[in-house]
Design brief:
The structure holds 2 protein chains of 2 kinds.
Chain A lengths: L2 H11 L7 H21 L3 H11 L7 E2 L6 E2 L1 H12 L7 E2 L3 E2 L2 H13 L3 H21 L12 H4 L1 H12 L4 H11 L16 H22 L15 H6 L12 H4 L5 E2 L14 H18 L6 E8 L4 H9 L7 H8 L3 H11 L4 H6 L7 H8 L2 E5 L1 H8 L10 E6 L4 E4 L19 H14 L4 H12 L17
Parallel strand pairs in A: 6-7
Antiparallel strand pairs in A: 1-2, 3-4, 6-8, 8-9
Helix pairs in contact in A: 1-9, 2-4, 2-6, 2-20, 3-4, 3-10, 4-5, 4-10, 5-6, 5-8, 5-10, 6-8, 8-9, 8-10, 9-10, 10-15, 13-16, 16-18
Chain B lengths: L4 E2 L10 H11 L4 H11 L7 H21 L3 H13 L5 E2 L6 E2 L1 H12 L15 H15 L3 H21 L11 H18 L3 H11 L8 H5 L7 H17 L15 H5 L40 H14 L6 E9 L17 H6 L1 H10 L5 H6 L7 H8 L2 E6 L9 E8 L4 E5 L14 H14 L4 H12 L8 H6 L8
Parallel strand pairs in B: 4-5
Antiparallel strand pairs in B: 2-3, 4-6, 6-7
The chains are: A alpha+beta, B alpha+beta.
Chain lengths: ~475, ~500
């Protein structure tokens, strides 16, 4: 029963020089992707409410809010930067960690406060990633658990507390207390899968970050927390995952510390190539539909019906059916939900092309061409067809959630598109169709441009992260993530 | 640089996703969150029966006393240092110290103070609500200039919501080691805040959906200590207040956040593989405005985990009645009723400086009662190991045994009886009754509550004049036009002032 202590010892001892080259590379990719998403996510309507809240709260101006440039306390900036990172559900994930980003949301404001250098930032970010992924992987997938907690607000606080403690140079006792205090502010669930109004889901990344920063700052004041907070009888793993009725835990404590320093989670980095959450499972269908549209040059009014055939029953399979007509009452709510609806996003793709942030912002009811999107989405059906995948692919790998698209045109033609891989998506053989570093930089630029960040500043941001280990302090980055 | 090994995902044999769908199709009671939001938004002062209004005032005074004494805890001072470092704008007052900070942080601090001695209310199963609700109402009322009617309505609404959400998802029978204060407190804090903000049902529903994002904490401090446990009510208060404000500013969340297939109750209580829930969502709204679950409250006579209250009271009474000295005692047997669903908090003895463990250890509490004849705040504070008479208490504790009764009496009491075996061969036995302060069975009088308040106010160095003023204001709360007089009476004055 020493998992917490052993993990804390490893965290506090971790130095940049301990990181293997692939770990450094992928830690930078996390940072690159999160910073890009943070810039783009600043435009999400739901996040404006959080911005209004933070701006109404006059507090010590120690850190900078991305894009807007206002200053507030590190915990408030972590709240906002985190909400921005998850703003479009466009951000990175990794094995076990689920929805991440809280570690980066804590890293930026704390590094600014402490004027950290690049090596310190890399070690801290990497430690945060490891903590979140290891805790998550110790349990089973959240959506396959009896208790559907959300990773941002159950694991994020620990990742953010870890990062903050690293930046503040905590000793083992302080770090243990920081993690333990973070266990007092958990929560969140997956109800946003089921119906509209998921703006709050995006804010959770920020809540997790803010809670972690706060926990570490309280630890700095000498506040103590419970020992064995991760593995204890009433600790984190027990409340998150619990046990079967026969008393078998839904978790494996040994994962927390398994091969620490040898086995790394940062290289399991995955990211998304569409600014909507349904790309995790439906991205293939969007790519396939786009390909059919480009190849056959039909217009939306030519479409009689669209069928998406997936290979397994998944939450999205059922839920995506309903959301096209149930997106909420306000633009904020609709925008918060549209990204979850494969029907909505597919209709938007067929009408307007790839669903970028700008496309989504400009076409949610009552804006732009929302009526056409809504109307077309009623002609889209999603169903399971396992046989197709068995027979058509015959052992070949295909996109894990898949997305065969069959478009019936009014002139009688039937266009049948084999599911295409979506960048960043996992395949049925477990491999990931990863973004190259160049593609990731392009993703950053796309979002930075939408947020009004100049090309010159984009260059500086990308160069800063590419050469992070050589950077003397973070202050060269901050002005460049502000409009 | 060498390459590091790359982790792989774990495979799982469990898959609850289909169970969630079964629950959704067959067992889900729809509209629970919406109805709760409508109930809260629609609740008015004139709808609340007189006895509940009176209870609301008693709980308000109880909370204020706990806030004043709690300000003296070491954990409270550390939290105050943290908030001072944030340099926030002065909206609301921090009790005793008089700092003015943003309403969120005033709620964090006063909420943490309130639970700092675990002397605040017990709503059953380790749950307390005063610390999550009252600080929110104080902070917001000061900022929003609300009157006594509004304050009382908000306090009662908040506490009732906590009780109702908790009733739907009992933790103890499921052996879920979540801190009930953190799981249920934020719902009451959010409800109270929306009442003060005058939110409509849509905003209340959005506040609730946001609440679920930070409504959980581990109970590990019960096992291994840690001061952060004392801040859990403060975290609950701050989060509830903030989400109510975020909802007002336009943030929204998923519908059916309580009863939904992957909503709060599912996270807290869980589901059987066949889709049957382990919670009862219907209880959230059952009889709202007619039946007041809040009346199940116990106002504590001792600063301990609530399951010890009857035990300490019984032992104290036996000690006094039979003039029993510690050295006369050969053994004490505490027979607890496992059928009550509320076993004694802990039999663990505290380590050095572990004040929390002394308050959560039934063996320690019983031993203090016998050795010191007192279980008040000062007794706990001054006798935490290795200080005071802690070694005598620890020595005595070796003679205290907790026996589990197999008999299911059906009575909703924690304990059935206490047997004191004396060295002279005599035996004294007593049944453990409902503790003083149990509102339905053995309520505190106003006089007793005032005494509890004054003892705590004294610890916070609040003058007798101020104590009189606070009691008078609370008793006549409806006459208050705003909180100015109340708040100023909660701040310690120097002689010059």
């Amino acid at each position: 029963m020493n998992e917490t202590k052993d993990l804390v010892r490893w965290i506090t001892g971790l130095k940049y020089n301990d990181l293997p080259s692939n770990v450094v590379d992928f830690t930078k990719r996390f940072l690159m992707d999160d910073i890009g998403c943070m810039l783009g996510g600043s435009l999400q309507l739901g996040n404006k409410a959080v911005l209004r809240d933070v701006l109404s709260l006059i507090a010590k101006p120690e850190s900078t809010i991305a894009v807007y440039g206002d200053k507030s306390t590190a915990s408030n900036v972590a709240l906002l930067d985190g909400a921005f990172i998850a703003g479009w559900d466009y951000d990175s994930t990794a094995v076990g960690g689920g929805h991440m980003g809280s570690q980066t949301a804590a890293l930026l404001p704390m590094s600014e406060t402490e004027i950290s250098d690049g090596k310190e930032m890399l070690a801290a970010e990497c430690a945060g990633i490891e903590v979140q992924c290891r805790l998550g992987n110790a349990g089973i997938s959240f959506t396959r658990s009896e208790h559907p907690w959300h990773s941002n607000t159950t694991l994020g606080p620990f990742a953010a507390a870890t990062v903050t403690g690293k930046i503040l140079g905590f000793d083992e006792e302080e770090m243990e207390n920081a993690l333990a205090i973070a266990s007092g502010t958990l929560g969140g669930n997956y109800q946003h899968y089921w119906n509209w109004g998921s703006s709050m889901k995006r804010v959770r990344c920020g809540l997790g970050a803010s809670a972690g920063v706060q926990a570490a700052l309280l630890a700095r004041e000498g506040l103590t927390g419970p020992k064995e907070v991760l593995e204890g009888e009433k600790g984190l793993l027990e409340i998150l995952f619990g046990q079967t009725e026969e008393g078998t835990p839904y978790y494996d404590r040994s994962i927390i510390n398994g091969d620490l320093g040898e086995l790394w989670y940062a290289p399991t980095f995955m990211t998304k190539s569409g600014a909507c959450l349904c790309v995790s499972s439906g991205g293939s269908a969007l790519e396939t539909a786009l390909s059919l549209k480009n190849k056959y040059d039909f217009s939306p009014e030519d479409i009689e019906s669209v069928t998406v055939e997936v290979n397994e029953l998944h939450t999205y399979t059922e839920l995506a059916q309903n959301q096209a007509t149930d997106l909420g009452n306000t633009p904020t709510q609709r925008l918060g939900s549209s990204g979850w609806s494969l029907r909505w996003m597919l209709a938007e793709t067929l009408l307007l092309g790839r669903p970028t942030i700008r496309v989504q912002l400009g076409n949610i009811r009552p804006y732009g061409r929302y009526r056409e999107i809504e109307e077309l989405s009623h002609r889209i059906e999603i169903k399971v067809n396992e046989e197709y995948y068995k027979e058509h692919f015959k052992g070949r790998a295909y996109p894990s959630q898949s997305g065969r698209v069959i478009i019936r045109l009014r002139d009688g033609r039937v266009l049948d598109g084999e599911p295409l891989p979506y960048l960043g998506q996992r395949m049925s053989d477990g491999k990931v169709n990863l973004h190259t570093p160049a593609q990731l930089e392009e993703k950053v630029r796309e979002q930075a441009a939408v947020a009004g960040i100049s090309t010159q500043k984009q260059d500086h941001v990308i160069e800063f992260i590419r050469t992070l280990e050589d950077q003397r302090d973070i202050l060269r980055l901050i002005p460049n993530i502000v409009r | 640089m060498a390459l590091g090994m790359v982790a792989k995902p774990r495979k799982s044999n469990w898959d609850f996703e289909s169970a969630f769908h079964k629950y959704n199709a067959q067992f889900r009671e729809g509209g629970v969150t919406r109805r709760l939001a409508e109930n809260v938004a629609g609740l008015e002062y004139c709808d609340i029966p007189l006895d509940v209004l009176e209870l609301g005032k008693m709980m308000l005074l109880d909370a204020l006393g706990c806030i004043l004494s709690g300000s003296t805890q070491a954990s409270s001072r550390k939290a105050l240092r943290y908030v001072r470092s944030l340099g926030c704008d002065p909206q609301s007052t921090v009790a005793v110290h008089g700092d003015r900070t943003h309403a969120y942080y005033a709620a964090l601090l006063n909420g943490s103070f309130c639970h700092a001695w675990a002397f605040d209310d017990s709503l059953g199963q380790g749950l307390s609500g005063e610390g999550a609700v009252v600080p929110v109402v104080l902070a917001l009322s000061e900022w929003q200039m609300r009157n006594g009617h509004d304050i009382l309505t908000a306090v009662i609404a908040g506490l009732e919501v906590i009780c109702r959400v908790a009733a739907a998802a009992p933790l103890v029978p499921l052996k879920r080691p979540l801190d009930p204060v953190s799981a249920f407190g934020p719902w009451g804090a959010a409800a109270a805040a929306t009442k003060i903000l005058g939110s409509d049902a849509n905003d209340v529903e959005n506040a609730f959906t946001l609440t679920s994002s930070q409504a959980a904490a581990t109970l590990q401090p019960i096992e291994t200590g840690g001061e952060s446990f004392r801040l859990h009510t403060g975290f609950a208060a701050m989060h509830g207040l903030r989400v109510a404000n975020l909802a007002r500013l336009g943030l929204s969340g998923a519908r059916e956040i309580l009863e939904g297939p992957e909503g709060f109750l599912m996270c807290i209580s869980g589901i059987h593989p066949d889709g049957r829930p382990k919670f009862d969502a219907a209880r959230v709204n059952e009889g709202f405005g007619k039946q007041w679950i809040l009346k199940g409250v116990t106002l504590k006579k001792y600063p301990v985990e609530s399951s010890q209250l009857g035990l300490i009271e019984t032992l104290t009474r036996m000690k006094e009645a039979h003039n029993i000295r510690p050295e006369d005692v050969d053994e004490i047997e505490i027979c607890q009723n496992m059928g009550s669903g509320r076993a004694l908090s802990s039999s663990r003895l505290p380590a050095n400086e572990d004040l929390l463990a002394t308050q959560y250890s039934a063996v320690w509490g019983a031993s203090m009662a016998m050795v010191l004849g007192s279980n008040d705040i000062k007794s706990y504070r001054d006798n935490v190991p290795p200080n005071g008479k802690s070694s005598e208490i620890a020595e005595f504790a070796k003679r205290v045994k907790i026996l589990n009764s197999d008999a299911e009496s059906g009575k909703n009491v924690d304990l059935e009886k206490v047997i004191i075996k004396l060295r002279n061969g005599m035996t004294n036995e007593a049944s453990v009754a409902w503790p003083r302060g149990d509102y339905l069975h053995n309520p505190m009088t106003w006089e007793e509550l005032e005494d509890k308040f004054r003892a705590q106010a004294q610890l916070g160095e609040i003058s007798i004049t101020q104590q009189d003023r606070v009691i008078d204001i609370v008793k006549n709360l409806e006459e208050q036009d705003d909180t100015t007089a109340l708040v100023s009476s909660l701040v310690r004055r120097t002689e010059q002032q």
